[in-house]
Amino acid sequence: MSEAKAKTRSQLKVVDVTDLILHDILAGVLAPGVWLKQIDLEQRYQSTRPEVRRALDRLVQRRLVEHVPNRGYHVFEPDGRQAMEVSDIRVILETAVADKIIANASELTTKKLRDLAHRFDDLIMNGTMIELYEANLAFHRELLALCGNSELVNLVTEIRQRTSSAPVSQWKTRARIEQSSREHHQMIDALAAKDIEELKRVTVMHIRQM
């Protein structure tokens, strides 16, 4: 093995193969429904068969990959019913802590959220879809973290991944992306105004993409 290849493999070993596959699923590189051949994944991520198998099994547990006996693994493809039910769960969880988010918001945290919202705005024109997706996640993690419950933040992050297996499935049109941007700022405005009901209203609209 060449020094360059050995170095690349050493660098990749630092990152769990699960995270590498997950990133490619979220980026749309591995699209919903595509079959995941273990030998291809071994070569792609320069990993061993046991590492790839463990990663796939972890993703099955997170319902991002589906295992079909005697056939193999494929990227999970949610149906409309599941997407609706996941949205319902998110609405329940995220609106339930709106009062805590408002109570814990400060001038400093509000400014940080505004900066994250502006980064999302900039990426609409100048970024890639995966950069836009990650900027959106960063904004929502920061906002939800104000509730003070890290387990809830992690749970919502995991739930989001079940139906957003690629950024393009989240924003089907440019108009919807721009609306998401406006809703980010409306949430921040609600924080600054200490308006719990407005924060809940915009959160529901944002989750359901109304």
What does this structure look like?
By secondary structure, the chain is mainly alpha-helical. The chain folds into two domains: 73 residues, Winged helix-like DNA-binding domain superfamily/Winged helix DNA-binding domain (Arc Repressor Mutant, subunit A); 129 residues, Four Helix Bundle (Hemerythrin (Met), subunit A), CATH 1.20.120. Helices cover 74% and strands 5% of the residues. The chain has twelve helices and three strands, in the order ααβααββαααααααα. The chain has a three-stranded antiparallel beta sheet with strand order 1-3-2. A hairpin with a 3-residue loop joins β2 and β3. α5 runs antiparallel to α12, α7 runs antiparallel to α8 and α7 runs antiparallel to α11. It is elongated and about 55 Å long. The N terminus is likely disordered.
Radius of gyration over C-alpha positions, nearest whole angstrom:
19 Å
Percentage of residues assigned to helices? over 70%
Strand line-up of the largest beta sheet: 1-3-2
Give the helix tally: 12
As a percent range, the share of strand residues is under 5%
- What is the average of the pLDDT values? 86
Q: Can you say what the CATH homologous superfamily of the largest domain is?
A: GntR ligand-binding domain-like
Q: Please identify, by name, the CATH architecture of the largest domain.
A: Up-down Bundle
Write the H/E string, N to C: HHEHHEEHHHHHHHH
Give the number of domains. Answer: 2
The N- and C-terminal alpha carbons lie at a distance of 54 Å
Counted beta strands: 3
Residue windows where pLDDT falls under 50 for at least 5 positions: 1-14
Name the CATH class of the largest domain. Mainly Alpha
| CATH fold topology of the largest domain | Four Helix Bundle (Hemerythrin (Met), subunit A)
Largest sheet: 3 strands, antiparallel
Would you tell me the structural class of the helices and strands?
mainly alpha
The backbone outline, from C-alpha atoms, is elongated
